[in-house]
Amino acid sequence: MKKLVILGGGESGVGAAILGKKVGFDVFLSDIGSIKEEYKIILSENKIPFEEKQHTEQIILNADWIIKSPGIPKKSNLIQKIIERKILISSEIEFAAQYTTAKLIAITGSNGKTTTTSLTYHIYKNAGYNVGLAGNIGKSFAWQVAEENFDYYILEISSFQLDDIQNFKPHIAMVLNISPDHLDRYEYNYQNYIDSKFTITKNQDKNDYFIYNEDDPMTKNWFQNHNTKAERLPFSLNKRIENGAFSDNENIIFHINSNTFKMKINELALTGKHNIANSMAAGIAGKLSKIKNDFIKQSLMDFEAVEHRLEFVLKINGINFINDSKATNVNSVYYALESMNTPVIWIVGGTDKGNDYSELITFVQKKVKAIVCLGIDNEKIINTFQDIVSDVVETKSMKDAVNAAYSLGSKGDSVLLSPACASFDLFKNYEDRGNQFKEEVRKL
Q1: Is 113 assigned a ligand-binding role in the annotation?
Q2: Residue 33 marked as a ligand binder
Q3: Measured CA distances, 28 to 39, 82, 275, 375 (Å)
Q4: Any stretches that span the bilayer, and where are they (predicted)?
């Protein structure tokens, strides 16, 4: 019996362990940190041996196949030893895909992944398709492959998951946009990060589809030196597209394989230019799967926004409070500020991932009246914006940040939590950060 070792005891790791056991592997799960009690119970019930707070190399380096948590960097000592031994390393996504015949729709990009994945799932679900939602969102893909029998999976895929791809082959792949993110994981080499994103299409063939953003400069650059065997379907806010989707400022028009339909932009559930693009990408996928226009249109009209992504919280004394905690990079904040139509008190900061804030300067000059820094080290933010915005204050807790923002605001303003950074200096994750924000706003 072949030995399968899972590194990481979170949702994806436990799911991979359950699938591995089901398909006949001798499974062992190892986590350098603590495993949640609920997962330990599930592993025990499934008679899957595991360890926590350590990695026993003698067991791990004796594996035939290792499924690695996306959070473990390739440069870690253990991974380097695994590579030296030439043991196969895969992501949970790669592993699970080999044990399902369902059609896979895989979505990546620096921004908008969660929204577009959820929106695409909403379209397929509304149309009555037997569809699962997985990847970086929802229940583990491997777990669903083990226990469900879906015909389609809509998968949100991060660059970390794509780093360990060998044979993963989605029927429909999307790259929504590319901007600098997670550069600390890619030796601060932007090209390494870009190449990682485009591995989503490397195994596709002429019977598959690749949806991409025609307006994105990094995507256009990539196509100058690379190609995909899949049929290309671009979307654009700026130019007419012959096979894909585009906007004429009032409508979005889907024109796919001589089949055309359009809907008014003001009918879309999601606002902002970036969400017009996300709606186009999701709609193209629906059209490729022969979903009727009425279902696509209705789904784009009644979709509810994702939590922690430009989520309206409350209006207090005429000041809007907006939770965009999921904005963990500069480009996400660019889209958030672009969509704001009121003066902004901007709460920003956290664990810097190699951010360059200069691309935000124009929007900050036009829209931001005050900045509230929320992080352990705010030096880069202060240096960039202190000569542009007169009020810049530093805080070290969500309570202080919300109170400071409220005191700086006046009727007609918006307080926007859009951090541009990871959350790990003061919070467990971006959800914890967003939830604390909402809690403190409600206490005002």
Answers
A1: yes
A2: no
A3: 14, 15, 42, 38
A4: none
| Segment 385-394, tens digit of pLDDT | 999 998 999 9
Instruction: Establish whether 135 is an annotated binding residue.
Output: no
User: Cα torsion at 212, 217, 219, 220 (round to 10°)?
Assistant: 100
Q: Annotated binding residue at 114?
A: yes
Residue 111 marked in a binding site? yes
Two domains, one topology: 3-90 and 311-443? no
Residue 110 is labelled as binding a ligand: yes
Entry pTM: 0.79
Burial status of residue 315 (CB atoms within 10 A of its CB: 0-12, 13-18, 19 or more): exposed
Cα four-point dihedral sign 346, 352, 353, 355: positive
Three-state secondary-structure class, residue 208: coil
pLDDT tens digits, one per residue of 199-222: 899 999 999 999 999 999 889 888
Query: How many other CB atoms sit within 10 Å of the CB of residue 331?
Result: 22
Quote the radius of gyration of the chain (alpha carbons, Å).
22
* Contact in structure between 208 and 170 (CB atoms under 8 Å): yes
Report yes or no: 16 and 42 within 8 Å, Cβ to Cβ: no
Q: Which CATH number fits domain 94-302: 3.40.1190.10, 3.40.50.720, 3.20.20.80, 3.30.379.10?
A: 3.40.1190.10
Select from 3.40.50.300, 3.40.50.720, 3.40.50.2000, 3.40.50.620 the CATH code of 3-90.
Answer: 3.40.50.720
